[in-house]
């Protein structure tokens, strides 16, 4: 007499049954590997996160708090509410500094973007030599302070080699850094000279992502270089160009060191850009509360400009399908 089994016999082949039994174990192994990867990622991110908190997040929050206080390093911060912001609104030097900064940004961004785009296109079309790219990048390897001092000596009205050459061709010497009309354009062009190579290489990298067969098809259709530039290069380069513009605008609004070593805000506040005025208020007159209020105002202005640029240029979208 046979005893019936309490469970039906398995209809899965032996190999499939073994695989089915091993699946939960595989999942547990995957979860363990994911946890290990997460810990490793957290380990690598930790130094950057620590630097972000210590050198960016905490100073920003501290500066926002100090903007509502009267603070001079010698006495505890005294809460004054919106007094610093009211003073800022009625401060003619603040508005003059903001105007000077905007003038600098317009000249710097306009000239730098056009020049960098031209250099990037020439690098792509004529040569892709690594040595030539290194030469283009060379001025960027020099610090702003050194670049400012070098151009200060070159453009000196009496002894500078630049004015010596101008005088030799029969033109009157130009006080590039000592005249209210010439000072800001000169500082802007000094920074264009230093940064244009780096900006050009960023745009060159964007050009490398454009498929070459698009240009070949356009040539077959009889398109000229100028037409290909406007119909192919510019539309497909737009996302990269938008990011580069956002970065350069933010950097331009924070110009300081070139002004500090060349004109020190003069002549007659003609180059007293906002960052230099903030520095003078904080470390020259020890008005850290008021300087913090102007810094917060600059933060708000840059945030608004960045959001506006991002939306207008559609930086998050690309025409490459």
Describe the SSE topology.
Elements: H1 14-66, E1 69-70, E2 78-79, H2 83-89, H3 92-125, H4 130-137, H5 144-154, H6 161-168, H7 183-208, H8 212-220, H9 225-253, H10 257-262, H11 274-284, H12 288-313
Antiparallel strand pairs: 1-2
Helix pairs in contact: 1-12, 2-12, 3-7, 3-9, 4-7, 5-7, 7-9, 9-12, 11-12
Features:
321 residues, mainly alpha, two-stranded antiparallel sheet, 12 helices, 2 strands, 1% strand
Report a brief summary of the structure.
This protein has 321 residues and is mainly α. Helix content is 71%, strand content 1%. It is built from 12 helices and 2 strands; from the N terminus they run αββααααααααααα.
Low-confidence sequence ranges: 1-7
Please count the helical segments. Answer: 12
Name the strands of the widest sheet in spatial order: 1-2
The description of the largest β-sheet is:
2 strands, antiparallel
| C-alpha end-to-end distance | 74 Å
Radius of gyration: 30 Å
| Overall pLDDT | 87
User: What portion of residues is helical?
Assistant: over 70%
Tell me the total number of β-strands: 2
Secondary structural class = mainly alpha
| SS strand fraction | under 5%
Order of helices and strands: HEEHHHHHHHHHHH
Label the overall shape.
Answer: globular
Subcellular location: Cell membrane
Pfam family, one: BPD_transp_1
Region (Disordered): 1-33
Domain ABC transmembrane type-1: 98-309
Explain what the structure shows.
The chain crosses the membrane at residues 40-61, 104-123, 135-154, 236-256, 288-308. Residues 1-33 are annotated as: Disordered. It comes from Streptomyces africanus. Keywords: Cell membrane, Membrane, Sugar transport, Transmembrane, Transmembrane helix, Transport. Residues 98-309 form the ABC transmembrane type-1 domain. With 321 residues, this protein is mainly alpha-helical. Helices cover 71% and strands 1% of the residues. It has 12 helices and 2 strands. The protein has helices spanning 14-66, 83-89, 92-125, 130-137, 144-154, 161-168, 183-208, 212-220, 225-253, 257-262, 274-284, 288-313, and strands spanning 69-70, 78-79. A two-stranded antiparallel sheet has the order 1-2. Strand 1 and strand 2 form a beta hairpin. The longest helix is centred in the N-terminal third of the chain and has 53 residues, at 14-66. The chain is globular and about 75 Å long. The N and C termini lie far apart (74 Å).
């Amino acid at each position: 007499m046979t005893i019936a089994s309490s469970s039906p016999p398995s209809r899965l082949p032996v190999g499939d049954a073994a695989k089915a039994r091993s699946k939960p174990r595989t999942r547990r192994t995957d979860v363990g590997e994911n946890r290990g990867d997460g810990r490793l990622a957290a380990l690598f991110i930790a130094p950057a996160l620590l630097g972000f908190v210590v050198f960016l997040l905490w100073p920003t929050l501290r500066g926002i708090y100090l903007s509502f206080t009267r603070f001079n390093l010698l006495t505890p911060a005294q809460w004054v509410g919106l007094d610093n912001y009211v003073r800022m609104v009625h401060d003619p030097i603040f508005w003059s500094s903001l105007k000077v900064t905007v003038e600098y940004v317009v000249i710097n961004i306009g000239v730098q973007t056009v020049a960098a785009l031209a250099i990037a296109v020439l690098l792509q079309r004529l040569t892709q030599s690594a040595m030539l790219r290194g030469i283009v990048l060379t001025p960027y390897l020099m610090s702003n302070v050194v670049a400012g001092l070098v151009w200060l000596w070159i453009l000196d009205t009496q002894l500078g080699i630049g004015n010596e050459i101008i005088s030799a061709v029969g033109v009157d010497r130009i006080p590039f850094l000592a005249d209210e009309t010439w000072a800001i354009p000169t500082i802007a062009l000094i920074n264009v000279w230093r940064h244009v190579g780096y900006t050009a290489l960023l745009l060159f990298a964007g050009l490398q992502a454009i498929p070459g067969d698009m240009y070949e098809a356009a040539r077959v259709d009889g398109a000229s270089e100028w037409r290909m530039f406007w119909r192919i290069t510019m539309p497909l380069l737009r996302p990269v160009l938008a990011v580069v513009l956002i970065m350069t605008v933010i950097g331009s609004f924070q110009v300081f060191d070139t002004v500090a070593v060349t004109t020190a805000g003069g002549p007659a506040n003609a180059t007293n850009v906002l960052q230099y005025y903030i520095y003078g208020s904080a470390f020259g007159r020890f008005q850290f509360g008021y300087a913090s209020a102007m810094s917060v105002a600059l933060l708000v202005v840059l945030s608004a400009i960045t959001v506006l640029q991002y939306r207008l240029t559609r930086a998050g979208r690309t025409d490459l399908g």
